[in-house]
Amino acid sequence: MVESPVVPGRPCSIAATLQLTGDRWSLLALREILFGNRRFSQIARNTGAPRDRLAVRLKSLVADGILEKREYQATRFEYHLTDAGKELLTVLIGLMTWGDRWAVDDPPLVLEHHGHQIQPAMVCRTCGQAISEDDLHLVSHAPGWTINGPDTHDDIVQSS
């Protein structure tokens, strides 16, 4: 199980996720492992990460329960996604989809599903409807916090 990291500021699952996976080398390593490149040399080559930094990030992802190391030869290991790591697929596809639209002129890679290019969409599993920003209603469950920030008397006076 992934242990919840302590993060400064608003208690937030996004902040906690970024604390575990948020640097470039971690996300690119996860991409490579998702693509089936599980050996350190493959991950280093395909990410362009400095080997020392990559080693630290992989060790951290293993310690945080996102990856696991499996021996394939004496003293040689491959990295595999845990169940927690597999659930990051939607995050990686979301980053790729956004990047295809906003960060590159021509997508360098296309993901296919049953012979067609995927068109990801965010859909509510409960009702099956597409989710848009306008449909969201935020409810704070963090003690001492509202949607606007810390629940202090000063904030109440300022917003009146």
Multimeric state of these chains?
single chain
Please give the largest β-sheet.
2 strands, antiparallel
Strand arrangement in the largest pleated sheet: 1-2
Mean pLDDT: 92
Question: What is the β-strand count?
Answer: 6
Cα radius of gyration in angstroms: 19 Å
What is the overall shape?
globular
Percentage of residues in DSSP E strands: 5-15%
Are there runs of 5+ residues with pLDDT below 50, and where? Answer: none
Q: In angstroms, what separates the terminal alpha carbons?
A: 44 Å
The helix content is 40-55%
Number of helices: 7
* Backbone structural class: alpha+beta
Q: Spell the H/E element sequence.
A: HHHHEEHHEEEEH
Task: Describe the protein's architecture and organization.
It is a single chain. This protein is an alpha+beta fold and about 160 residues long. Helices cover about 40% and strands about 15% of the residues. The strands form three sheets. It has a two-stranded antiparallel ribbon. A two-stranded antiparallel sheet has the order 3-4. It is globular and about 55 Å long.
